[in-house]
Amino acid sequence: MESIVGMLVGREREQEVLSEFVRAPGGRALVLRGDAGVGKSTLLERVVELAAGEGQEVIRAAGVEAESELPFAGLHQFLYPLRSSIDQLDGGHREVFDVVFGRSAGAPPSVMTLGIAVLDLLSLVASDKPLLLVVDDGQWLDAASTEVCGFVGRRLTGSSVRLVVGLRSDVPSGFDTAALPALPVTTLSEDASERLLDRHHPGLDPEVHRLVLDEAHGNPLALLELPPYVRSNRAGRTPAELLGYTGVPLPQRLQHIYGARIKDLDAAVRAELLRGALDGVRAGTAAGRPGGSRYRMADAGEAAALGLLDVDPLTGEFVFRHPLVRSAVVQMATPNERRSAHTALVRVHGDDLERRATHLAAAAVDPDEQVAAALEAAADSATRRGGALTAVAWLTRAAELSESHQERSRRLGSAAYIAGHSGRLGHAQQLVGSNTGPGEDDSPSSVVTSAYAALFEEGDLRSSQRQVFASIERMRDSGVRDRDEELTRLVDLLLAINQYVGDAVMWERTHDLLHSLGDAVSSHSRVYQDAWGDVVRRGAGVHERVESALARLRDLEPWDITRLGVAAYHVDVLSQYRPLLERTVEREVENGAVADAMTMLHLIMLDQIAVGEWDEAERTGHRTLDLTTSLNHPLFVYHTRGYLGLLAALRGEVEQARELQAMVDSWARPRGVGFLTQIADAVGTAAALSDGDHEAAYLYAIGITPPGSFAPYAHQASRTLLDLVEAALATGRAEEARRHALAAQQAGLPDISPRLALLTYGALAMTTTDPQEADALYEQAEAHPAGAAFPFELARIRLAHGTRLRHTRGRKAARLTLTLAAETFGRLGAPAWTERARAELNATSGSVLASTAHLAALTWQERRIADLAASGLTNREIGERMHLSPRTVSSHLYHAFPKLGVTTRAALRDALGKVPGDQTR
Q1: Taking a C-beta distance cutoff of 8 angstroms, is the pair 281, 294 a contact?
Q2: Distance between CA atoms of 419 and 397, rounded to whole angstroms?
Q3: HTH luxR-type domain location, by residue (predicted)?
Q4: Phi-psi bin for 299: left (phi > 0), alpha (psi -120 to 50), beta?
Q5: Could you confirm whether domain 846-913 is CATH 1.10.10.10?
Q6: Are 167 and 35 in contact (CB under 8 A)?
Q7: How many angstroms separate the CA atoms of 524 and 842, rounded?
Q8: Under CATH, which architecture does the 4-184 domain have?
Q9: C-alpha to C-alpha distances, 697 to 603, 686, 701, 758, 882, nearest whole angstrom
């Protein structure tokens, strides 16, 4: 077989780059980018030849337009030859590949998770022999595969793996933003064009020779294909008449040339080529699909003789000589010929749900319920694999092929539902609008779509709530008794709206409505009903139900995972499901249910806050804010700001926290978004506690729930248990603090969630007057398994315990507990809490006289601010009086508290009484 180097003309620079690419040590990636026919495939063959000469293993893949919407179709081509090596990886990576190959029910992995697994697999394979991965026609690779290849290509340094990708410059591709090194493949020079033309077509008529050079413009494929076209089509026409396509791009001219040859083929051969083209048989060396299910063209020697096909030297199979041949074959076929070819391909892919459905849909003309059902099943599969947009297209086609209006309506509703969850509310409304006539805008699908639009884009909860509630009532009154997809969507939407509104009366009406529906309400909806509303009164056993539901991942859509994740948050078991959310969210942000991705990011951020990963939580919060803002979803924008405000409050960034609190509150309160106004009040509570302003903290906390009870349907009521107790104790309201702690115990909070157990034991320990009971309760709290998962709450309980120990048992007994608290606060990045813990710790190690001497180190301004704070003024009031910002006041108090040996504002008056007024500096 002739060496590729012998076929190359005028590519000296490109060959130098490719030689260096193959032979230099270390892994790397390279993109060859150029116009159709410019020679990219030939250069890729040269790379393969060079790699073979260096003893490297080569694995090839090709993007084909027919598979560009099938998730992971391109990646399969790389992975399938390596499947024996996958078994040598660790269990986690094997699970990832099982999902990609469809052997597992797990959630589809994120780009990062899959990319890391692919990198490990490639490194394993290349440890025995250097590896070259070759992708031709990368512009047609599916989005999921493109993302993973880009991720891998950027991380090959230090390995023995090389990746080279050929791209058409006139077709947009995910590789355009992959930031991989590129080698432009340009047209040939005039001299090289002449040499190539003379080598392959010697003795051309001078007129034809000149005209071909002028028309080819240095495109190698044109230089090879134009002369035989002229020779075979003269028929009295001049070469100029044959080649003079004024204003027509060269690829289209070449396609026309191939079309002329295709016309001369026997009908059976043309049909064979059409089946191959529609099934994605590629150009160049064959790259078999996993399982070998790609159509194999037979009895096509006539096409090969005309230069339309080549024969793969490795497999002996026919392959298209160039992608433009494949395009010409499809474009020249009549609609009936294409439908006939698709029908034949249905039989080829009998075991492949998505490919079979694709060909069924293309073959159908009239409504066909069997085909529509197959497309609907394929859409379900695509949704679970992260292809929500593909699912919308298939469901829309399924609706077109439905035999009854009812089925058409249902499938269009499903398409609209997925489009809405994909952040494409405009498209969703178009789909619903195409299915409703005058006076039909109250259909379930229309109500769901319009309510989501009002909820996400306008924050209009009350009207959406009434509309959805009425629609469910109509369905109930019409006799719905079995589980119905549209009913489930309405119920879940109503529960989500209720969660945001937080209105007790509407929640009770909803419970009555769902009770009247009986078994027509799904088990998942029942979980949401109990977890999202009043978790104090209905949350017992939710954890186990969430765990049971998430154990059946194969049956879950992205929105199911999201909603169950929200339920897990409400019962404080989110951490165990965070890996699932992280795997799912990246996929959905790129090409899936973006609306659900926003909630998943909220959940990830909340868990990062809970476990003490505050820097990561801030990054997640800002990423979510960017996403929600770009999609123009105000509800999610302010929701995100609320969580960022809560994080700022915990970190002692009080001014920023209060600014975000005010933004959220001013948007949410007029709209009746109780969920967000409660978050705003929780931000105010946490900021005041960080600031040492316990009076303000108490007022914010009782705005959420009165002491001694937990307001129904107030989701922050139980979450701020410790805040209210601490603020009440620090402001001399010991009776209210004790009453609230006992209410938590009587409400059974320890049985609802591990965090609530920790908080309840801590609150009871802080408020009891019995020393022995306090010791037992503190021990129970600090030994609770949930302590490690909620380090901030545990550190607060330890701080309170250490303070009590110092007063009741002496300094030595308190040191370890206070040290643990101070170290945790410091690690978390909570400076105000760290200073308090250190002040208590300092008080365990010096004499009273030494401490008194230390107290005299107050500056004049610190003394003045401390006096005003002791009189009951807030930081803002002190700032107004002294012409300082509240943040500056807070900073001075942070310095004054440890000097005075106190941790609360309530203790300031007594401490200041021990310091003479003139002992300042």
Answers
A1: yes
A2: 14
A3: 851-916
A4: left
A5: yes
A6: no
A7: 52
A8: 3-Layer(aba) Sandwich (3.40)
A9: 26, 7, 6, 21, 23
pLDDT higher than 80, residue 292? no
Q: Which residues contact 779 (CB under 8 A, 6 or more apart)?
A: none
Whether 113 and 96 have beta carbons less than 8 Å apart is answered as yes
Question: Roughly what angle, to the nearest 10 degrees, separates helices 388-400 and 353-363?
Answer: 40
pLDDT digits (tens, 9 = 90+) for 534-543: 999 999 999 9
For 790, the 3-state DSSP assignment is: coil
Residue type, 330: V
Strands 161-168 and 182-184 come out as unpaired
What is the residue type of 167? L
DSSP secondary structure, 367-408, as one string: --HHHHHHHHHHHHHHHHTT-HHHHHHHHHHHHHT-SSHHHH
Laid out side by side, the sheet with 28-34 consists of: 57-62, 131-136, 161-168, 28-34, 182-184
pLDDT surpasses 90 at 103: no
Q: How confident is the model at residue 353 (pLDDT cuts 50, 70, 90)?
A: confident
pLDDT value at 91 more than 80: no
Mean pLDDT, the chain, integer: 84
Q: Yes or no: say if 688 and 720 are a contact pair by the CB < 8 Å rule.
A: no
pLDDT score, position 75: 84
3-state secondary structure of 33: strand
pLDDT > 60? residue 722: yes
Give the distance, in angstroms, between the CA of residue 555 and the centroid of all CA atoms in the same chain. 19
Mean pLDDT for the stretch of residues 227-253: 58
Cα–Cα dist 423/434, whole Å: 19
355-376 pLDDT tens trace: 888 888 888 888 888 888 888 8
Residue written as token pair 């539902």: 417
Contacts of 251 (CB under 8 A, 6+ apart): 35, 36, 37, 170, 324
Q: What is the pLDDT of residue 592?
A: 57
d(CA 250, CA 256): 10
Is the sign of the CA dihedral 749, 753, 757, 760 positive or negative?
negative
> Can you tell me which residue has the tokens 């180097």?
5
- Amino acid making up residue 138: G
Helix axes 250-263, 323-332, angle to 10 degrees: 60
- pLDDT tens-digit map of 427-472: 666 676 666 554 555 677 778 777 777 766 666 788 889 889 998 9
Report residue 856 CA to chain centroid gap. 55
CA triple 192-193-194, angle to 5 deg: 90
With cut-offs at 50, 70 and 90, classify the pLDDT of residue 591: low
Which three-class secondary structure string do you get for 58-102? EEEEECCHHHCCCCCHHHHHHHHHHHHHHCCCCHHHHHHHHHHCC
User: Using an 8 Å Cβ cutoff, are 102 and 176 in contact?
Assistant: no
Nearest to 153 by CA among 27, 56, 45, 64: 27
Smallest Cα–Cα separation from 725: which of 840, 713, 710, 154?
710
Q: Among candidates 221, 175, 178, which has minimal Cα distance to 196?
A: 221
Residues 645 and 664: beta-carbon distance below 8 Å: yes
Topology, domain 368-438: 1.25.40
| Cα–Cα distance for residue pair 802/836, rounded to 1 Å | 11
